What we know:
Layout: E1 5-13, E2 19-28, E3 33-37, H1 44-51, E4 59-64, E5 67-68, H2 73-79, E6 80-83, H3 95-105, H4 112-121, H5 137-149, E7 155-159, H6 167-182, E8 186-190, H7 194-200, E9 203-208, E10 211-217, H8 218-225, E11 228-234, E12 251-252, E13 258-263, H9 271-281, E14 286-293, H10 296-305
Parallel strand pairs: 3-8, 3-9, 6-7, 7-8
Antiparallel strand pairs: 1-2, 1-4, 4-5, 9-10, 11-13, 11-14, 12-13
Amino acid sequence: xxxxxxxxxxxxxxxxxxxxxxHIDLAIAPGEIFALLxxxxxxxxxxxxxxxxxxxxxxxxxxxxxxxxxxxYRKVRAMIGLVxxxxxxxxxxxxxxxxxxxxxxxxKPPDPAHIExxxxxxxxxxxxxxxxxxxxxGMKRRVMIAKALSHEPRxxxxxxPTAGVDVALRKDMWAMVRALRExxxxxxxxxxxxxxxxxxxxxxxxxxxxxxxxxxxxxTLMRKLGKKQLTVQLHGPLTQIPESLARHQLxxxxxxxxxxYAYDPRASQGAVAALLEDLQRAGIxxxxxxxxxxxxxxxxxxxxxx
Length: 306
């Protein structure tokens, strides 16, 4: 399948000498939700700004829908909706006026039905006549999303879209994102709420120090890099771990009542059974077993540390 976004050998160095992007290659498929994760200063916002044509490209090539972002700037920009981190809205305009105006900026004819549908989906309909300056931060964030969707883009960039947004508003946003994906819109998001990426994304990319260090299908990533932890609740407390169990690299909690065992289920088939056999040989009785799986956040933290 032809990617809707193609980024090839892209680098960006600012006037200060800071190299924000370093030979980035990335392809994003039509209709997917792609989560771009990375620590502050990793290059996420620069990469989005560059793809949207608001940051100058130093090196490489970027195309959207098969069109070059420089040679076909206007056509490319009309295909893209962008929700930036910063709240930049026309404070003295009404919600209806600013969203309608945004649609007109991209040469789209007036479509009150589409504007109404968008505002209703974002729970903004009852605020349509309010001046933006009177809205809460969360409602202003919703207006930013409505503006980005006003011209019916094929690609939607969400740069920290739920920053400062309460849980109820966040759920509404993600419901709308899922509906957009089902209609064929490609979603690229950055977020500090990694559980959102785990819940929403089809694929995950991790960027650090301006380099893409991993791009993977979310399910495959969690299967490849996810680890499990077995917690053994003991029948009686231990003062120390017996030497006969050293090969399992167990951790004993402070109270001496539980042993923790971290393992890779792919590389350690039969490891749990072997541990339980060794516990029995050592005369250690236990009352309960619990297993937990690494989250996407655990994997992200370990990747960035490495």
